[in-house]
Amino acid sequence: MIIDFRSDTVTRPTKIMLEAMFNAPVGDDVFGEDPSINTLEEKAAAMFEMEAALFCPSGTMTNQIAIKCHTQPGDEVICDSTSHIYQYEGGGIAFNSGCSVKLIDGNRGRIKAENVLQSINPKDIHKAPTSLVSLENTSNRGGGSCYEMEDIINIRQACDDNDIKLHLDGARLFNALVAKKQSPAQFGKTFHSISICLSKSLGCPVGSLLLGNKEFITKARRYRKVFGGGMRQAGYLAAAGIYALDHNIDRLSEDHLHAMQIAAALAQKDFVQEVYPVETNIIIFTLKQTISAKELVARFKESQILVHAISSSQVRIVTHLDITPEMTEKTTRFIQSI
Ligand SMILES: *Cc1c(COP(=O)(O)O)cnc(C)c1O
Fold it and tell me: Of all helices (H) and strands (E), which one includes residue 302?
């Protein structure tokens, strides 16, 4: 049996989730007539106490639509240098929105209000107008690191003082909410828009949601159509999301426990230089010169354990819904044996 830690996107829908999908009432969502999508959008908006939500095929699309809505061509977006929106969305900020980017070297993916204030362009005809700050929580490249709410509130204040919008790439926001015992409503209050992924740790096959006020979501709905993301009877997919929001959030603490157990085993090993502090479901560790990331990934693979080399000396392990306590134990025993 293969144990797949490459990403939390590898989960398969469970039988009970598939049954919910199979039984979903559907209609044409471009006409606003899919009851399951409408229910999912209302449910997510209510959870975050935001006015409205929009169901999209991917987190890349929800982020890119948000950036498009908040900016004009020629504007500048502020984000951490490791951000998914900058590193892993195909240059979409330039391609879709015609914006430049000001990168901040944050602390494991997290930036602070003072970084933001230093990065805002002065109102000067030589400069691109700064119109958006985007945060990522949890931070993927930061190894699942979480923001303190106080830091986010300070960033929002800096944005308000400079007439700038604040977006959250919350692909793994539920991991942060569970780990930090934070409330979705507090996030809803602090961001102009939030993107959440259903297809990561929540275990859905497809789907992301964009949240914001009514005016923003009306605009976002138009851009979703322009970007080719208007779907028809996608209520079958939304039904998986409804199921996941009801059943798969609280259990994320199990994934976090598994990640900590694996990290503890790694920390004992001579070939490991450093394990990033584990806060949620991602473990990133750096190797000593004695073994390359590629070699270590191959060693794991011989034991049917899949992990991911993110650089020549760093490996990432992600725990998720399909990782059982037995798989975690087998993995820690394997690590001890290396
Ligand atoms: C996965 C991910 C996304 C969205 O990715 P899609 O594959 O397009 O759904 C966005 N941000 C972060 C931080 C991610 O990890």
Answer: helix 293-302
